[in-house]
Amino acid sequence: MCGIVGAVSNRPVCDILVDGLQRLEYRGYDSAGVTILDGAGSASCVKRQGKVGILASALADTQFNGTTGIAHTRWATHGAPSERNAHPHQSGERFFVVHNGIIENHDDLRDALVRDGYVFSSDTDTEVIVHLIHQLSPHYADLRSTVQAVTQKLQGAYGMVVADSQSPDELVVSRSGSPIVIGYGENEHFIASDPLALLPVTRRFSVLEEGDSAHVTREAVRVFDVSGVEVIRAANDFDMKSDASDKAGYKHYMLKEIFEQPEAIRRTLEGRVQSGAVSADAFGAGSQALFSQVKHIQIVACGTSYNAGMVARHWIEQHVGISCSVEIASEFRYRQSFVHDGSLLVTLSQSGETADTLAALRLAQSLNYLASLTICNVVTSSLVRESDFVYLMKAGPEIGVASTKAFTVQLTALLMLCVAVCQAKQTNQTFRDEAVEALLQLPESIQQALTLAEPIKSLADKFADKHHALFLGRGDQYPIAMEGALKLKEISYIHAEAYAAGELKHGPLALVDADMPVVVVAPNNELLDKLKSNIEEVRARGSVMYVFADSDDHFESEPGLDVVNMAHANHLITPILFSIPLQFLSYYVALVKGTDVDQPRNLAKSVTVE
Ligand code: G6P
Fold first, then answer.
1. What is the share, in percent, of the chain residues with pLDDT greater than 70?
2. Model pTM score
3. Which residues are catalytically annotated?
4. Residue 303 in 3-state DSSP?
């Protein structure tokens, strides 16, 4: 959450910083700010409430020539979203800081600083950092050692960049719990919380490890580990197009990302599913040997990624024949769970930085798991760096806050995981053959599902004035109903709940009336007849229903029942395919309602605080 950009250059940096913020806006967008050092001992700090565009307009009429600066786009944790709480925060006219994360002991630090005469001008936890830097700076030789001393006093999580107007040729960076990368240019260096911010200016990055701090000048980057020892953090070229974060002509990132799904799935399969099998190293070197010993899989994730895990539980237990539990990371990390013999921990995460998922992984490392595997989309992320085995999703950057392509790529990877584990155990050849064939067919089947955009668009009007909606599914489609409900509430702000259809009579049926649309995911599988009975129960209560059905389900639209037919596909991939119309439904309902599709209120893409 929150985005950080910094630059020490030989050219004016203001535009680079603001452009970087705009590319990071998916991380938080309630206020933004920039500090530019003028090189002669002064600094200009401009902050605005609202999106980065508002800050950009405020900066438009002023020419800033400073070649060193820091910038931030915020997702509020402590203190309301306002100009006063926007970063950078400053102490006097000298020190400035931008910070991601939460300083948990900020109350105590603030009290002590107030007693020492510091006056606070924001309600944030961050402001203690910059006053501490001011307070300690006379006692240390340079800015880096001052920052290192300050971090000893901080409890919580931070990724931060510090600027000193009296020392305009350097920035100091520190990370513990919030990601930071350093970007390398020609006689200039950059800092960001995500490489995406800096793609127009560099493709060469190093990633700071937990506890690292760095001293960044035009000429050099020096990195120090948690104990202050200078270390090398290798810089690598980052293989990503600068326009990967453009909308490419689509009205919203979300719509673009929905339409990118066939390509994203093709990329994730490429070189990994071939010759009728999942390649031995698809989940990392040595994964086959590991999988042969696995007796239980524990999946941990948050949000949409959790829903993907819930689908996988069905596949793993049914087709691999081993037990699987799925848990929300924020619950898993704070309870004493039972570790089954021969358990593999699998984390699912688009960003690889979700604080709770990362904490769950770190907890699991102290428990008796065989190993950890992450299925993750971001190569530089903490989950990727800290897990024993990695499956890199290759979905391409996902910018829309509501996850779409990451979900279907996660499901694809999870189905591949089932095949890979069966291969390693030499079991269930029938499933393996069927799954490999279905996976190879998947991009085309998704392409076909994308043609539903128009028919679903015409349904959206019927939802726009509703305040609640119910999503029903059974078996491996129940988590798809959960994901459909999550999408709808995230971006249209309609309260939506998912229920396993068999649970309807145990409560939710009491809510059903003409004002409560009921959405059903109904592929033609062994549970269809049961589901049809549930549909009748709802219809008898005068509800308005929307059924996403298999073309051979034989549902007919009639008053009070809208049917959208999906092309028939192999049952193994129907959860993936049926998520597409639900993505469209939430998108078009949000369009009708006029909500902010890509940046829904109060949410952020990458939740790096717990
Ligand atoms: C946030 C995002 C969701 C995402 C969840 C987990 O809530 O808005 O789209 O599913 O975090 O994120 P992760 O990056 O771990 O998949």
1. 99
2. 0.86
3. 2, 605
4. helix
Task: Give 608 Cα–ligand 1 centroid separation in angstroms.
Answer: 10
User: Which are the contacts of 465, defined by CB distance < 8 A and separation ≥ 6?
Assistant: none
- Beta strand 343-349 pairing with 371-376: parallel
Per DSSP, 318 falls in state: I
**Residue 414 φ/ψ, nearest 5 degrees:** -70, -35
Residue 485 neighbours by CB under 8 Å, 6+ apart: 469, 470, 471, 496, 497, 498
**Angstrom distance (rounded) from CA 99 to CA 161:** 7
Tens-place pLDDT, residues 538-592: 787 878 889 998 887 777 888 888 889 999 899 999 999 999 999 999 999 999 9
- Find the residues whose C-beta lies inside 6 A of ligand 1: 302-305, 349-351, 354, 357, 401-403, 603, 605-607
Residue 526: pLDDT over 90: no
- In degrees and rounded to multiples of 5, residue 323 shows phi and psi of -80, 155
Q: Where are the alpha helices (DSSP H) in 12-164?
A: 14-23, 52-59, 106-115, 127-136, 143-153
Taking the C-alpha atoms of residue 472 and residue 404, their distance in angstroms, rounded to an integer, is: 19
Which ligand 1 atom sits closest to the C-alpha of 351?
Answer: 14
Which residue is it, tokens 């029938």? 430
